[in-house]
Amino acid sequence: MSSNSGTVSEYLQTEYDIARCSYKLLESALFAAHQEYVRRQITYSLLQEDSADTLHLIVAFLLFDGRQNDVTFEMMNEEGAFPRLVELILEKKDDDAGLHRMLLELLYEMSRIQRIRIEDL
Predict the structure, then answer these.
(1) How far apart are alpha carbons 102 and 92 in whole angstroms?
(2) pTM above 0.85?
(3) Which residues of 55-70 are buried (b: 16+ CB within 10 A; e: fewer)?
(4) Cβ-proximal residues to 47 (8 Å cutoff; 6+ apart), any chain
(5) pLDDT, tens digit only, all 121 positions of the chain
(6) How far apart, in whole angstroms, are the C-alpha atoms of residue 95 and residue 33?
């Protein structure tokens, strides 16, 4: 009997695959119809997820979406994502160079767009 419980890394093996998957979601009818809900759920996943593979996909989506829509970074800030990004950058720096780079990019883009609260530093 086959299992449907494949991991992210099983299907998305390169940074290109991750980017392509993220852009497919951004261009989908589902996302177009429910942008705020999808963004919020993915942000909540960022706050709770620990798997490097899954985080890579989450971070890529938020980064690509945020570059097109500042509201993504604003919502992430409202939900407390800044301290979580700092935590992940410190924790995951040896796990995956691509993930670490994307985490840094997301933190940079988020802080470039808006003012970060002192208590988040």
Answers:
(1) 11
(2) no
(3) bbbbbbbbbbbbeeee
(4) 79, 80, 81, 84
(5) 333 445 555 666 677 888 888 889 899 999 999 999 999 999 999 999 998 888 999 999 999 999 999 999 999 999 999 999 999 999 876 777 889 999 999 999 988 876 666 665 5
(6) 35
